Amino acid sequence: MHWFVLGCIRGLGLRKGGIVTDLQYLENLFLIPDGAERERRWREDPEARRILPELYRLDGIPQPPEYHPEGDVLTHTLLAIRHLPPQADPRLAWGALLHDIGKAETTREIDGRIRAFGHDRAGVELARGIMERLGMEPAKIEDILWLVHHHMFALSWQVDEESQLSRRQWRFVEDPRFPLMLDLMRLDALAAGANPAKLAQVEFYRRARRAQAP
């Protein structure tokens, strides 16, 4: 029952220097089993806001409504957290939390349309600073940064047949972290109104990877 976890963290007031570090505190929030409660805690928890001010700067950052009917970037991000599977890989959880962290810096209105060009690259630098500050192990940081950096790959590739994939693209698909990328793509789609085109992309790349399996 997640109230035991919350009681250990909040009720007993265990903080950095005691039993629970800031990193452990946040990772325990990922473990709340009920998705709606997990989303609510991430939105309202004062400790999370203290530890991760960069995340809450996404509140009110607009997104194009034709692609993001759910609303602003913070809402989208926390919906992705809501849809995490039980006992999710922490790298996936952090990838979901940080995949759009660069939008606070890059979102602009251009010719009457909302754009966030380069938010993936900007997000890598912000995410690196956050995770290093929290004391996360370097190998885990690099995997999460890979997810943040490449989470828009399908949009740039515009591929819908396996025969269209280049050798370089196949090497990317064969990366051992690619299943995590597909899980992140699925969360991204579910957090954007269960976008059917994005969900179809996930299934296409799952099939492509299976086709390459020995």
UniProtKB/TrEMBL annotation:
Keywords assigned by UniProt, alphabetized: Nucleotide-binding
InterPro entries per the UniProt record, alphabetical: HD/PDEase_dom, HD_domain, HDIG_dom, tRNA_CCA-adding_enzyme
Transmembrane segments: none
UniProt GO MF annotations: nucleotide binding
Pfam family, one: HD
Domain of life of the organism encoding this protein: Bacteria
Coiled-coil annotated residue ranges, if any: none
Domain HD: 87-192
Name of the protein in question: HD domain-containing protein
Origin species: Trichloromonas acetexigens
